[in-house]
Design a protein that fits this description.
The complex is a heterodimer of chains A (about 90) and B (about 240). Chain A is built from one helix and seven strands. Chain A is α+β, with helices and mostly antiparallel strands and about 90 residues long. Chain A has one domain. With about 240 residues, chain B is α+β, with helices and mostly antiparallel strands. In chain B, α2 packs across α3 and α4 packs across α6. Chain B is elongated. The chains are: A alpha+beta (about 90), B alpha+beta (about 240). At the A-B interface, β2, β4, β6 and β7 of A face α4, α5, β10 and α6 of B. β7 of chain A pairs antiparallel with β10 of chain B, so a sheet runs across the interface.
């Protein structure tokens, strides 16, 4: 089964109303994808995106959109109800 | 290190010195000829002289991992030609002056290399500026106004960890050794080096991303951070939880 392509969000482009987002850190700063949680195909594609990054050693944190300083929660499995996740490489001692 | 990976190799100097290199030791059959015309370090030269002056037919020299003797000899291949598995020393070729055409061609190649190098450096710098700006916008989106003000004024981000400990993330020019645990009065108790691994695209994370990663991890799972962190100075609070 081929998955639908998710929309990439440009920097400073706000997440459209009703959409959820994953920000993944990389050498460009971050890459941002959005999906419609009411669309099963897009949810499946978002889950695969999440799983791919986890397989690459990333960890996920849920943050509230616009909730400055809200304590992020570690996300242990993909949850389509989370509005915004930041995914980052695992920590290592330097 | 070359001398740790080479297989038994014979080196002949005027046909009367044979050297076998295997793993971390060298076995030398000596014939009394000193090595000359080689830019060796004093230690390597002394080692060669020692071997060359041995009277036995076979001598064994154990090398420490920091010993560069074998490496240095390997780097001197211009002086040697290889025949099967035997290096035979050859005469040093005299330096032939370049013709004006050759010199011009050499200078043109150097200039072309310089242009390519500078353009690549410019592109890298431009990408880095963009990446840091993007990462900073994400960092600012997440931090509270108080944290942002503290960062701007004092050069670090105050963070309350998931178990209530207080941290300071220094935001200077590094994401290494920049995480401190502090007491209620702000006095540093311990300093750590802990940062995100390399991202999946193979590049390196902008500093602002690394600082945000440190903030998120400490707020969500500070013990997890302390478990992998390397202690730079002071104490690791996790040790307080372990009975003596």
């Amino acid at each position: 089964m081929s998955l639908v392509a998710l929309t990439n969000l440009a920097e400073n482009e706000p997440v459209p109303e009703g959409y959820h987002a994953i920000f993944s850190m990389d050498s460009t700063g971050d890459s941002r994808i959005i999906w419609d949680p009411s669309n099963p195909d897009e949810v499946a594609a978002a889950r695969k995106h999440y799983d791919d990054l986890i397989a690459k050693g990333y960890q996920a944190f849920s943050v509230r959109p616009g909730g400055k300083g809200e304590k992020g929660e570690k996300v242990m499995r993909f949850d389509p109800t989370l509005e915004k996740m930041i995914m980052q490489p695992a920590m290592v001692g330097g | 290190m070359p001398y740790q990976t080479v297989y038994p190799t014979a080196v002949s100097n005027s046909g009367n010195i044979t050297l076998y290199a295997l793993a971390s030791f060298l076995t030398v059959q000596t014939g009394g000829t000193a090595l000359t015309n080689m830019a060796l370090s004093t230690y390597a030269m002394e080692t060669w002289a020692m071997w060359a002056n041995q009277t036995g037919t076979t001598n064994t020299q154990y090398l420490s991992p920091r010993d560069t003797t074998w490496q240095e000899w390997c780097y001197q291949r211009d002086f040697w030609s290889m025949n099967a598995n035997t290096f035979v020393r050859t005469p040093v070729q005299p330096v032939v002056p370049l013709t004006p055409e050759q010199l011009a061609a050499q200078q043109a190649r150097a200039e072309a290399d310089r242009v390519v190098f500078e353009e690549a450096a410019r592109v890298r710098a431009e990408k880095n500026v963009k990446a840091r700006a993007r990462a900073k916008s994400l960092l600012l989106e997440f931090l509270t106004p108080e944290q942002i003000e503290y960062m701007d004024r004092h050069g670090h981000i105050p963070v309350i960890g998931s178990r209530g400990r207080r941290y300071r993330i220094k935001t200077g020019g590094t994401a290494s050794g920049n995480v401190s645990v502090v007491d209620d009065k702000g006095v540093e108790q311990g300093r750590f080096c802990v940062h995100p691994r390399q991202p999946h695209d193979g590049g390196s994370l902008p500093l602002e991303d690394s600082w945000l990663a440190q903030v998120l991890h400490l707020q969500a799972d500070e013990d997890g951070v302390l478990k992998v962190a390397n202690l730079v100075s002071g104490v690791n609070p996790l040790r307080e939880l372990v009975p003596a």
